[in-house]
Amino acid sequence: MTKKGTYTGTVLVAGATGKTGRWVVSRLQHYGVPVRVLSRSGEKAGELGDVEIVVGKIQSEEDVSKAVQGCAAVISALGSSEVFGEASPGEVDRDGVIRLVDAAAKAGVKHFGLVSSMAVTKWYHPLNLFAGVLSKKFEAEEHLRKVFRTEGRSYTIVRPGGLKDGEPLHHDLHVDQGDRMWSGWINRGDVAELLVVSLWSEKARNKTFEVVNEDEEEHLQDSLEKYYDRLAG
């Protein structure tokens, strides 16, 4: 686990005022990483504490381009909340993430972390009844892999199970690859921790994986970097 202040590049968090995004910001602050957020609401973003705020929309190419300038990394915790309109899966989970990926690459961002979802390759999963949200997330994943798996860039995609509020580092985790899981739960704090750790963990580079709590009763007292060791093994 890195010491505070080891990672000094500014990290843009998209979706920072959402439930998972707030955990991402909190864990970055825990490690002393400079944080910038892109948010529609400067007032809501102001609740996040010591962050640089860019007021804008993920639907705006101009706003997104402004937000990524000068950032070393981006972590996207974007998520749709409506079936139609600007907050729909097509506008946010697919087009919004794709727009962010392209702007980040153009601005010279080195690493991109993405919160996706378990079962994104399963078009028949019940969650896909919400305006094809899983399929839209998978399209965004594919675009990220295409753009950032090049020399000088990297990505980490975390596909969590069902999300619930909770601190990180309190449960052992079950990680897998290949989208073979169907169900399970995980604390938002752990999802955030995995993405933040990916900033400095070489073994997290260019990895896509699913993750859920292994056992509600088992408590983790070690760094989550060990899970990247397992994936790289």
CATH homologous superfamily descriptor? NAD(P)-binding Rossmann-like Domain
Mean pLDDT value = 90
Strand order within the widest sheet?
3-2-1-4-5-6-10-8
Q: Termini separation (Å)?
A: 19 Å
Using the CA coordinates, give the radius of gyration.
16 Å
Q: Using the coordinates shown, work out and report the CATH topology.
A: Rossmann fold
Outline the biggest β-sheet: 8 strands, mixed
Number of helices: 7
Question: What attributes characterize this protein structure?
Answer:
alpha/beta; 233 residues; 33% helix; Rossmann fold; 20% strand; single chain; two-stranded parallel ribbon; eight-stranded mixed sheet
Q: Brief overview, please?
A:
The protein is an alpha/beta fold and 233 residues long. It has seven helices and ten strands. It has one domain (11-232): Rossmann fold (3-Layer(aba) Sandwich).
Please tell me about this protein's structure.
The protein is an alpha/beta fold and 233 residues long. It has one domain: Rossmann fold (3-Layer(aba) Sandwich). It has 7 helices and 10 strands. The strands form 2 sheets. An 8-stranded mixed β-sheet has the order 3-2-1-4-5-6-10-8, with helices on both faces. Strands 7-9 form a two-stranded parallel sheet. Helix 2 (42-46) links the parallel strand 2 (35-39) and strand 3 (52-55). Helix 1 (19-30) packs across helix 6 and helix 4 (90-107) runs parallel beside helix 5. The longest helix has 18 residues, at 90-107.
Produce the secondary structure layout.
Blueprint: E1 11-14, H1 19-30, E2 35-39, H2 42-46, E3 52-55, H3 61-68, E4 73-76, H4 90-107, E5 111-115, H5 133-148, E6 154-160, E7 162-164, E8 173-176, E9 185-187, H6 188-197, E10 207-213, H7 225-232
Parallel strand pairs: 1-2, 1-4, 2-3, 4-5, 5-6, 6-10, 7-9
Antiparallel strand pairs: 8-10
Helix pairs in contact: 1-6, 3-4, 4-5
